[in-house]
Amino acid sequence: MSEPITAHWHAPSNIAIVKYWGKFHNQIPANPSISFTLTLSYTDTKVTLTEAKEQLPTADVFYEGVEKPDFLPKVLKFLDHAMAFYPWLASKHLKIETRNTFPHSSGIASSASAIAALACCIEDIHSLLTFTPFDRQRVSHMARLGSGSACRSIYGGFVQWGSTADGAGSDHFAIPVEQVHTAFLDVKDYILILHSGKKTVSSSAGHGLMKDHSYAEPRFQQAKQRALALRDILTSGDWEMFIRLMESEALTLHAMMMTSDPPYILMKPNTLAVIEKLWQFRSDTGYQIGFTLDAGANLHLIFPASLTHIVERDFLPEIQYLCEQNRIIRDCIGDGPRKITEG
């Protein structure tokens, strides 16, 4: 390789409906999870590959044009894992230029989209070097080693990671959920930015606290059952059952945090205020509008696209003042990562 090689990808975040919380060695999930991939909440990453003298891969990371040496340890650890898939990374230097369309480290799965974008870039370069097709399953497998939920961001639509009792899925990579009713093909996710600051406890630390958690085993069994139940719901098109399961999963996730040792709370007062207003609105109107939360304070309003006008006209005016600077990311279910062609 005499000339630099460049790859440029957008990879979206995803929002889990059945939550992954707790893991074993080598990023093996303690329970299966099912998410859907977003469209507008993505990481834009450009990788420029050049030769280097060192035996292991080296890197420089720039976030929104500013060099970020504090991002480097996680990136280098990921590249070390990636060498098992791509031995040519030895003696290579990667200039990584990245940015997000949403606040990072605030509970909107920024590590998922960031690692997914980087993994797509590396696989793209591999395809150029070896004249082989882009292998999405290999990308998902590799992305998992950098961030568990990143393996789900490699595909669009609804995605499962982790094996279930019926033999579906894998703990090593994600797979698309194939049987989805038309009722769930056009899903909206309005992300309410209630707290854009960095989380007080990282997701990695939160996963670690599940190791000795008093309620870990019942939670893992519950999630396994709910993954099967959610697949049935996605097949049937039942939005009422979908919302009931989704909201319970979100609150269960945060209950596990609050009962960890030490305990911690990532929800903020405005998170609870919006939930109460949403429950009242749904009770008054009967509209199937639900919520979920990742490991953070920002709330995702989930609803069928057919209710967009109702949400915009009747519900957002009641709660938008609770968002930081009235900020809402109006997102929707998407098709997965996208290669960016320069020029």
Verbal overview:
There is one protein chain. The chain is α+β, with helices and mostly antiparallel strands and 343 residues long. The protein contains eight helices and 14 strands. It has helices at residues 72-82, 110-130, 136-146, 203-208, 216-236, 239-258, 269-285, 308-319; strands at 5-18, 23-24, 28-29, 33-51, 58-63, 66-67, 92-100, 158-161, 174-176, 187-192, 290-293, 299-304, 328-332, 338-339. The strands form three sheets. Strands 1, 4, 5, 6, 7, 8, 9 and 14 form an eight-stranded mixed beta sheet that branches. A hairpin with a 5-residue loop joins strand 11 (290-293) and strand 12. Helix 1 packs across helix 3, helix 2 (110-130) packs across helix 3 (136-146) and helix 5 packs antiparallel against helix 6. The two termini are 23 Å apart. 43% of the residues are buried.
Write a compact overview of the structure shown.
By secondary structure, this protein is an alpha+beta fold. It contains eight helices and 14 strands.
